[in-house]
Amino acid sequence: MDLEILKTKIEKMSKNHHIEILKILKKNGNVKLNENKSGVYVNLSFLPNETLSELENYLNYIEDQEISLITLENQKEEFKNTFFIEKEVKEDTLCYSSISK
User: Fold this and answer.
1) Three-state DSSP class for 47?
2) Is the pTM value of this prediction over 0.85?
3) CB atoms within 10 A of CB 52
4) Scanning 7, 28, 34, 65, which has its CA 20 to 30 A from the CA of 58?
5) Quick one: which H or E segment has residue 49?
6) CB under 8 Å to 9, separation ≥6 — which residues?
7) Whole-angstrom Cα distance, residue 97 to residue 93?
8) Which residues pair with 41 in a beta bridge?
9) How much is the pLDDT for 10?
10) In whole angstroms, what is the distance from residue 70 CA to residue 46 CA?
């Protein structure tokens, strides 16, 4: 993966993901982290290939998880609409039919 793409993807992530990425970077003792009040800065150009590979694997894992989560949320919404909204409509119909009798 290109370093620019890697950088862009990391910058768009949440703070929780940034913490996990820092843990990956910290595992490699040779990585120099520069921290100030704006955040932590890392020169990706000097990272070993193993660390870059581990970062890429983590980013791919996160993307896969997000896709899975979106799929599950869509299924959940579909089930909700199919089973619960139809049930409410049926219950309302029953109420109206009992009132008209």
Assistant:
1) coil
2) no
3) 14
4) 34
5) helix 49-79
6) 59
7) 6
8) 34
9) 92
10) 35
